[in-house]
Automatic annotation (TrEMBL), chains A, B:
PANTHER family: ALLANTOATE AMIDOHYDROLASE, ALLANTOATE DEIMINASE-RELATED. One of its GO terms (molecular function) is hydrolase activity, acting on carbon-nitrogen (but not peptide) bonds, in linear amidines. Keywords: Hydrolase. This is Peptidase M20 dimerisation domain-containing protein.
Length: 437, 437
């Protein structure tokens, strides 16, 4: 039988692996809070390494704390085929985002082990550090360093709200490895990733599996506004430089700009105002915009429109203020910072890798799957810059993600893991043929 | 000469007292950060007590940490005439708000001392605890307990953002006194207060002094919205329950509601969203509204309009969500909390006390003053519930307050202190005549 195709993952073992590993970071509402490099992340990493070692894998940890657990093949002179995702979560996240990818990869390794399958190439399970970017923005930080999108220094120096850096936290939890974090020094042959869809499309069409052909383009922005701290009781309404009111107008305008461009999405999820006093108008407001679009050209249009719309809000404020206050008002609310803190163009996955996912999905699901573009970024965006990459989406409930209510059925996870197994073995056959040729 | 009216405060001493006492809590930008009951507040309180003791005052500290420094009179069987304000500031406040009131009162005591004036009634300088409410909302907390607006338990249990209570912080800095905090147990005969205007009216008319006849009506609100935490990249724009977007719409609508009612003011200065993740729509947003109006009736109208406007925003969200998501969406963004956390009706000050301020202003300023209604709340709002109360406003630059740029000229402060001295002596004469009669 070609490709060892008769073998299947063990559903009940995969299910119990979720129960076991999600004990670190679970929250009473059924969700997860396992921010990157916290103590729960440390514990689940140690657990993961132990599981892989039991299967005879060797384990490497790189300078960004990325874990590579490698199961040897027949020809260990070629780089391993990677199966990666992440074990960190949002602060109020679910049990599936990222976790499905790593635990399915572990189940694939166990299935190969049980069936004594010797692959041609070595196979690597990868846990990428800080995919969420929730603790240390931006997202996909460590696959980004590996893929050359960020320097190691940039990766190490990212810090959380308390000022702890990635490097200091890696040291603290014992995961500052010495393997260089780069494709060139520590290569893969390919990268496959299962992930929950995080959207409603598969559920709407009653499908378990999506074959992901690429990822939409993304920008993140940081904005700081400065107005005047003024007494809320005594300052006439028309003499105010009300920073939070300007921010509120921008948030609405950002929403309208994205609604006006089909295929674009933009929103503000983080806002901070100071001083925090009911009786004093805020004089400084910081917020972030997350913007996405189905093409680089559309994102470029959205980029221009967002900046224009936000600048119009401050120009209105300045005009109004100067007409009433003259120079004494110092010109209303100003935009102190308009900064693009992250840019990620549209990703198109490798045609061969995608076709192997598609073939595997056809075998496992009998044709019941669809091709999709991912709305979210994933570690595969950065691996795709260096090696053939493809992704498998599985259905999730109501498209809900980054939320304790995030949920995927076990049968859908099983289907995804079996598609991953089939894609991996197909890619292994391809490498064998290519090397022989 | 009636009323000891020839005497005047010492300008240079009053000026140097500012320099001396503002060393605790001053910020590099020329402002102050002396949040109630912090270590700087402790030090300035200790300094104040020392200054008053040097003048022969006895000092009482009550259960809310209010300091009463009492200079004896001829007849110590009647309650002292109070001169009070506060030494705490906003987190990014100025050197004048509250501080002018306490330091002018100290200068009045020193002037009485220098001129060996024996008043008929005793005279009390009062430093009221936590007037700003910036660290422990609401404002005017401890004059409020003294005046019966709040219970002692309420006052003691207010907490800051770190969970420290007023009581524990009073204990920590050694200012949890044992004098009962109430008018009944520790009465005054009257209360006079100097304060900076915190508005632009006196400057606009080139006047130093305002005679304050009352304080506008005020409400504070706490609002909590609950939407859905959703992935910002994958969730279609029309399937979102975007909590921060709803809050932004409300902030704009609150602004519009207050603009629509001349004499009303409403604004949002505090907002907090969670989780703080660029990639996850916030599922919980908390904010506060501060609302004021020139009459109780107008504030009641504003109250109805604000609640209606904000409820319309959530109703729109619920309608939209249910039309797209059905029951699975759980109904869009909801208003979990709409709570009035502070209500303070319009205050009208005592006619006799106000007339004595007016007479004193006429003597000091030769008729160059105006009657005014205060836009801000002050400790005098709560003393007015129990004893004849009046206030003196002094001019400040550009109406700026709650800001490091807050500024009043020394000559304006001197004028205010002399008006206070004259009003105090007039009220003392009135008490003497009244007791004799």
């Amino acid at each position: 039988m070609p490709h060892n195709l008769g073998i299947r993952v063990a559903s009940s073992r995969l299910a119990s692996t979720f129960d076991e590993s999600c004990s670190w970071g679970s929250t009473p509402d059924g969700g997860m809070n396992r921010l990157s490099l916290n103590n729960d992340d440390k514990r689940v990493r140690e657990w993961l390494i132990e599981q892989c070692k039991q299967l005879g894998c060797s384990v490497k940890v790189d300078q960004m704390g990325n874990i590579f657990a490698i199961r040897p093949g027949k020809n260990n002179s070629i780089p391993p085929i990677g199966m990666g995702s992440h074990l960190d979560t949002q602060p109020a996240g679910g049990k599936y985002d990222g976790i499905v990818g790593v635990l399915s990869a572990l189940e694939v390794l166990r299935t190969l082990h049980d069936n004594q399958v010797e692959t041609y190439a070595p196979v690597a399970l990868i846990d990428w550090t800080n995919e969420e970017g929730a603790r240390f923005p931006p997202a996909m930080l460590s696959s980004g360093v590996w893929g050359g999108a960020f320097t190691l220094e940039h990766g190490h120096s990212r810090s959380d709200a308390s000022g702890n850096t990635v490097k200091s936290e890696l040291e603290r939890i014992g995961f500052l490895g010495d393997v260089p974090c780069s494709y060139e020094a520590n290569p893969l042959s390919a990268h496959f990733e299962i992930h929950i869809e995080q959207g409603p499309a598969l559920e709407a069409e009653n499908l378990r599996i999506g074959v992901v052909t690429g990822v939409q383009a993304m920008n993140w922005y940081n904005i700081v506004l400065r107005g005047r701290e003024q007494h809320c009781g005594t300052t006439p309404m028309n003499m105010r430089a009300d920073t939070l009111l300007c921010a509120a107008k921008m948030i609405q305008s950002i929403n309208q700009q994205s609604l006006a461009l089909p295929g674009a999405r933009a929103s503000v999820a983080v806002i901070n105002s100071s001083p925090q006093s009911i009786n004093t108008l805020s004089g400084r407001v910081q917020f972030n915009i997350g913007a996405r679009a189905s093409s680089d050209a559309l994102l470029a249009t959205l980029d221009v429109n967002l900046e224009k719309a936000c600048k119009e809000v401050v120009e209105d404020s300045v005009r109004l203020d100067e007409s009433i206050m003259g120079k004494s008002g110092e010109g209303g609310v100003k935009m102190e910072v308009w900064e693009k803190i992250w840019e990620c163009p549209k990703t198109v996955f490798d045609e061969r890798a995608v076709s192997m996912v598609r073939e595997s999905a056809r075998e496992v699901e009998g044709g019941r799957f669809k091709d999709m573009v991912s709305g979210a970024g994933h570690d595969s965006v950065y691996t795709a810059r260096k090696v053939p990459t493809a992704m498998i989406f599985i259905r999730c409930k109501a498209g809900i993600s980054h939320n304790p209510a995030e949920f995927s059925k076990q049968e859908d996870i099983d289907a995804g893991a079996n598609v991953l197994l089939g894609a991996l073995l197909r890619y292994d056959d391809y490498l064998k043929e290519k090397t022989a040729a």
